[in-house]
Amino acid sequence: MTLAIPADLIARLRRAQRVVVMTGAGISAESGIPTFRDAQAGLWAQFKPEELASEAGFRANPERVWQWYAWRRQQVLKTSPNPGHYALAQLQQRLPHLTLITQNVDGLHQAAGSTEVIELHGCIHRVRCLDQDCGEMDWPEETRTVPKHSCGSLMRPAVVWFGEYLPEQALADAVDAVEHCDLMFSIGTSSLVYPAAELPLLAQRNGATVVEINPNPTPLSAKADFVLTGAAGQVLPALVNAFSEAP
Ligand code: OAD
């Protein structure tokens, strides 16, 4: 089946000087990465999301939360980028400027070769101190139990937990990119979680074309200028092909 990409969308993409792509869990679905809720099965089903992904949950039982993230990270390490991730990396090379904003913590955009990735919800491959601001560090491979930094603080996964603000710099960079773009894609996100869900609407208010790619309708669908219904791993390669063909 050939996916029809609207000629008007390709024309706008060719004219665009600054493009923003925002992705959510859907872009990694075809890589086999379970969403937070899907992952909460088996052994972990007995715990509430807040017990596994909040500061209070970590302070109450650091070992349990550390083991949950170590396990999730192992799941992520077994996966690879899919054609959707690779198509976005290609698109970035062919456009004057593309900023990628992701809500995912899996690092698969970077693994596919994308650069300038803004991680709104942090990254599962990094850690930071629970009680001090010592900056982020790589996940310590050799540790089986909760590590302690030289400052004395326990180390926690560098991901955004329930009840936490998004990383200030990442959010500021994302808003800046969105406010200055001509065209914005919203891909594989349910458009339910704020403030990320607000970003395509901000782009639109600033005059940008908004394109949604998702197999299912979301609250953004009625407002987007273009809706490409389908899996990101199919739609994005078709889009890059259409863009690359001679006009
Ligand atoms: P969700 O799990 O809420 O939504 C995933 C979206 O991907 C849905 O709209 C699906 O229809 C769509 N989808 C599924 N398969 C797809 C495919 N193959 N191609 C394209 N789209 C597909 O994920 P997010 O919107 O990312 O927050 O959720 C946002 C945040 O809520 C997450 O980052 C997480 C969660 O709580 C934190 O961890 C802070």
Describe it for me?
With 247 residues, the chain is α/β, with parallel strands linked by helices. It is built from 11 helices and 9 strands. The protein has helices spanning 7-15, 25-29, 36-39, 49-52, 55-60, 62-77, 83-94, 108-112, 168-179, 199-205, 232-244, and strands spanning 19-23, 98-102, 117-119, 122-129, 137-138, 155-159, 183-187, 209-214, 226-229. The model has no long low-confidence stretch (mean pLDDT 94). Bound molecules: 2'-O-acetyl adenosine-5-diphosphoribose. 2'-O-acetyl adenosine-5-diphosphoribose (OAD) binds at residues 24-26, 29-30, 35-36, 103, 121, 160, 188-190, 193, 214-216, 218, 231-233. 2'-O-acetyl adenosine-5-diphosphoribose binds at residues 24-26, 29-30, 35-36, 103, 121, 160, 188-190, 193, 214-216, 218, 231-233.
Give the gist of this structure.
The chain is α/β, with parallel strands linked by helices and 247 residues long.
H/E order of the elements?
Answer: HEHHHHHHEHEEEEHEHEEH
The biggest sheet amounts to: 6 strands, parallel
Query: Ends: how far apart?
Result: 22 Å
**What form results from the Cα inertia axes?**
elongated
Task: Give the tally of β-strands.
Answer: 9
Structural class assignment = alpha/beta
Oligomer: single chain
Q: What is Rg?
A: 19 Å
Small molecules in complex: 2'-O-acetyl adenosine-5-diphosphoribose
Strand content: 15-25%
Indicate the low-confidence ranges by residue numbers.
Answer: none
Number of helices: 11
User: Averaged pLDDT, please?
Assistant: 94
Share of helix, binned:
25-40%
Strand order of the largest sheet: 3-2-1-7-8-9
